[in-house]
């Protein structure tokens, strides 16, 4: 998988706290290889108190093309983006950030889209259905948004933190 790993290899990071449970760096790196890209995905264990300083350093590395954002940083990382998609701006959360051709960082949130596409792929069409969602954090709020966009007739959201 890393036969051609070198100083020219493009880097994509996945940031979270904790991070050891995350399996996606291997799969993302495999996907890069399958697409013929000289790129790798590297996990970064960064606690919330260090996130801003870490981000400032990561964005300066010219070989970093993107950052996957996971728990608990999905809300905080919106502040570090130069641009947000309409969806990410509405949700106030990102799960992916990429460097564009102008060197700016663009954030988006795909958790909800992925969830609804998985439902549809497995034969569940949300349009007209009633749904219960437990959890309104970064991924949960994105799933709620996508379920509404997919046409659920009623959505109940329950979260242990009432402020969400």
Task: Describe this entry's structure for a reader.
The chain is an alpha/beta fold and 164 residues long. The protein is 30% helix and 24% strand. The chain has 5 helices and 8 strands; from the N terminus they run E-H-E-H-E-E-H-E-E-H-E-H-E. The strands form 2 sheets. Strands 2-1-3-5-6-4 form a 6-stranded mixed β-sheet. Helix 4 packs across helix 5. It is globular and about 50 Å long. The model has no long low-confidence stretch (mean pLDDT 95).
Give the overall pLDDT as a whole number.
Answer: 95
Question: Biggest sheet: strands side by side, in what order?
Answer: 2-1-3-5-6-4
Q: Strand share of the residues?
A: 15-25%
Instruction: Give me the secondary-structure category.
Output: alpha/beta
Tell me roughly what share of residues is in helical segments.
Answer: 25-40%
Indicate the low-confidence ranges by residue numbers.
none
| Separation, N- and C-terminal Cα atoms | 41 Å
Order of helices and strands: EHEHEEHEEHEHE
SS summary, helix count: 5
Task: Please give the radius of gyration in angstroms.
Answer: 17 Å
Total strand segments: 8
Give the biggest beta sheet: 6 strands, mixed
Shape label: globular
Briefly characterize the structure.
With 164 residues, the protein is α/β, with parallel strands linked by helices. It is 30% helix and 24% strand.
Defining traits:
6-stranded mixed beta sheet; alpha/beta; globular; 164 residues
């Amino acid at each position: 998988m890393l036969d051609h790993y070198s100083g020219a290899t493009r880097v994509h990071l996945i940031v979270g706290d904790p991070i050891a449970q995350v399996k996606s760096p291997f799969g993302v790196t495999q996907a890069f290889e399958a697409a013929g890209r000289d790129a790798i995905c590297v996990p970064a264990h960064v606690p919330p108190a260090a996130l801003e300083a870490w981000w400032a350093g990561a964005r300066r590395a010219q070989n970093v093309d993107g950052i996957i954002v996971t728990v608990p940083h999905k809300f905080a990382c919106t502040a570090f983006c130069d641009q947000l998609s309409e969806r990410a701006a509405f949700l106030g959360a990102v799960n992916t950030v990429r460097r564009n051709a102008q060197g700016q960082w663009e954030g988006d949130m795909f958790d909800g889209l992925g969830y609804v596409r998985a439902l549809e792929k497995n034969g569940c069409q949300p349009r007209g259905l009633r749904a219960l969602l437990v959890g309104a954090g970064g991924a949960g709020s994105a799933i709620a948004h996508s379920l509404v966009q997919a046409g659920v007739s009623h959505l109940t959201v329950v979260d242990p933190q009432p402020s969400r």
